[in-house]
Amino acid sequence: MCGIVGIKALDHKQDVGSDLINMLNTIKHRGPDGSGVFIGGKTVHGPLENLKTPEGSFGLGHNLLSIVGTEVTQPIEKHGFILVANAEIYNFRQLKSCIKDNFKTNSDCEVIINVIQEFYNGSLIDAVKKSLNKLDGDYAFAIYDGKDCVVVRDPLGVKPLYYGENDLNEFAFASERKALWKIGIENVHTLAPDHILFNGVMLKLEDRDNSNWKLNNIFSFNDFNGGKINSNIEDQNFIEIHNQNHDKIQIKNQLKELLVNSVEKRIKGLSRVGIVFSGGVDSTVIARISQDLGVDTTLYTAGHENSSDMKFAKKTAEDMGLPLKTKILDVEDIKYYTGLVLNAIEEYNIMKLGVGMPAYLASEMAHDDGVKVMMSGQGADEIFAGYHRYTQFYSDKGEKTQEDLEEDILNLYHVNLQRDDAVTMANSVELRVPYLDLELVKMIMKVPMNYKLDGKVDGLRKCILREIAADIGVPYEIVRRPKKAAQYGSGIHKILVKKVLKDENYKNILEVLKN
Question: SS3 for 365?
């Protein structure tokens, strides 16, 4: 993945070139392998420090994180469109096979232009909203046709996108808030996944005619991705088995197949991958599948030496025969990394800080090893009912607890996904989240709650995921390990609250960062 920015001045005579470069420099860590801009009707690629921008009142910019092959520095210019994308399009090979065209690059992002062109009839916004049904991936992108600019992100908001306006009447968007702060935009907004920016105006996708990409359609079996994604699940057959216990094995096997497929498409083309590893069931399932698929898999764990995560990670890695890299933290380490993590997550939030620090350190170790892609278990607790609060919801509401899970999934982008993307990309490492594959999410939202929670009082939860874990060879003690949040399992939260944040000198530093 990469970093993208865009800016438009309301005054057509105003030059935005310097602000465009300033934004790109601010998020250079998201893409250290090349940069490019489109401004004044011209596209320029090259090292960011030497990039000479033409004058113009509208510009798009891109920083490249090259992962496989000869990935192309953007913006991509083709068929009269200009594209900048922070994207992984997992079905790009299938889409390319359906499109008759000469592809200029081997980038998965180029296919976005081709899909939009297939629907383009003079209206960019109509073409984009129709195209979203064909894309299977995690993305935030902007596309320009010489007249209009549309900015959009994936349905669950795996990839971030922010926007705002400064006192100079410049509207801008970027992959991180700090790029917007750099050019004087103080009031920064998050683009919600069910919204779109059209020439700087935010519009809700579900309010548009002929749009199948609606919030309330994400969890239905309604030809999402235009039938391009192979699945053995059909809505009619699935509803028939919905509450029949003797079909639980069939449901479990379908979930297992979808989970394996999700991991497989996220590691396709990679020779090695890292796992943000806690020694819990979520990350261990991902590690086991990656290992079984034959990819060189390394586990990365950070925490206090006596923490439960460190203990379980070491034992599990040994049992599974996987290499484990660890970072043992003491008080001074946590003091040092607090400022770095706060800068990454871009807000003074103690909970985000405690959860984000293990992932920050894991990605730092991965970066030092030359690993550019990691996976994590993010999203498993929301789709499989892993949080303790769900047991109370289930006791009160029964099957209607699915509505709480759905709400939590659709709001993951606010905190968890933003935080995890920010801390890993701070180290130029792309994070992929297999549990948030749309096909998997759509199916699990149809699975009865009693397959996720073992009765109304369940100390372990995520029952069907734990059964899948046992089936694929996850060690028994991990299958039965109770959930422990990352900030507690790593031991970081306790040190932060009891020692680091009580240091008066250090608190002064934190206040500066906060403001």
Answer: helix
Distance CA 428, CA 26 (A): 13
* H or E element at residue 296: strand 296-303
d(CA 463, CA 448): 11
Please give the pLDDT value at position 505.
65
- Joined together, the tokens standing for residue 60 give 């798009």
Q: How far is CA 384 from CA 264, 323, 390, 434, 467, in A?
A: 20, 28, 10, 13, 12
d(CA 379, CA 387): 11
* Gap between the Cα atoms of 512 and 515, Å rounded: 5
User: What is the per-residue pLDDT for 510?
Assistant: 52
Q: What are the start-end ranges of the H helices in 141-213?
A: 177-182
- Listed as own residue / partner, the contacts of 403-409 with beta carbons closer than 8 Å and 24 or more positions apart are 405/445, 406/219, 406/445, 408/382, 409/156, 409/379, 409/382, 409/383, 409/436, 409/441, 409/445
**Residues 287-307 pLDDT 10s:** 999 999 999 999 999 999 999
Dump pLDDT digits (tens) for 229-246. 233 333 333 334 444 454
Query: What residues are labeled active site?
Result: 2
385 Cα distance to chain centroid:
20
Rg (CA), the chain: 23
CA distance linking residue 275 with residue 262, whole number of Å: 15
pLDDT of residue 506: 62
CA distance 324 to 319: 11
Which pLDDT does position 412 carry in this prediction?
96
Over range 5-17, report the average pLDDT: 94
> To which residue do tokens 């209607």 refer?
400
Q: How confident is the model at residue 164 (pLDDT cuts 50, 70, 90)?
A: very high
